[in-house]
Task: structure prediction
Amino acid sequence: MASELIKDCALVIGASSGIAKALITLLRQECPVIAISRRHGHDANTDHHNIGHHHGSGEAIHSPSRHHSGHYSLEYYRCDNSDSAIAGIIAALMSRQVRVTRVYIFNGVLHQAGLSPEKRLEEISAESMQTLFHINSVIPMLWLKHLLPLVKGQTPCVVTVLSARIASISDNRLGGWYSYRASKAALNMLLQTAAVEYARRAKNVALLAFHPGTTDTELSKPFQQNVAKEKLFTTEFVSQRLLKVSSGLTPSPQAYFIDWNGATISW
Result:
């Protein structure tokens, strides 16, 4: 792995998503970025060097500390999101004394081949539920589990996890989408529970469940036909709002649940 130390950087997990890519572009104007995904999201304007180092199941792709365009550095790690691979990447970052001040976790799924939101009870299947819970609830928590020693310290840090308004139990008036709703609601409960422990063990960290609104990405494409034009947001807009919303948060023994407009959402 490259020998230089990286201070005050942002960590973007699930970096191949549409919002994550837009966010990385913005973040690189402010700080170094370490991006992690199951596949590399190479940017044509970034120099990459495959240095062939492996940490657990994580493979590092390293770029120079400062690009000629003036953007801060960008590194990619490939990770299969298994417990051991996540542990290996965190260990590698800690060995380099990386200081992380912002973390964004974008792992999530709404639909994929053979899987779509349920409209009726009869459409529920154990296999689909297990898939959504694993991706939407379990994987983000594995990251929170291993991130704790990396982010704790004296420097304030905000860890953002992509949630959804549909996860709100008190706001559920339409029904349907059983597995997605439940997996995101479970994620919110896990975040709230983790916030209690983080407040004891990493007092500098705030946890945020962020609702991006309906964003023009692959996740929402099958459901955009009924969305008003002004309510379908670009990834650039959402990433700008995410930076704005997360920048004003302070450490708390409770997680925050906030939408793109900065409004608090009822759990």
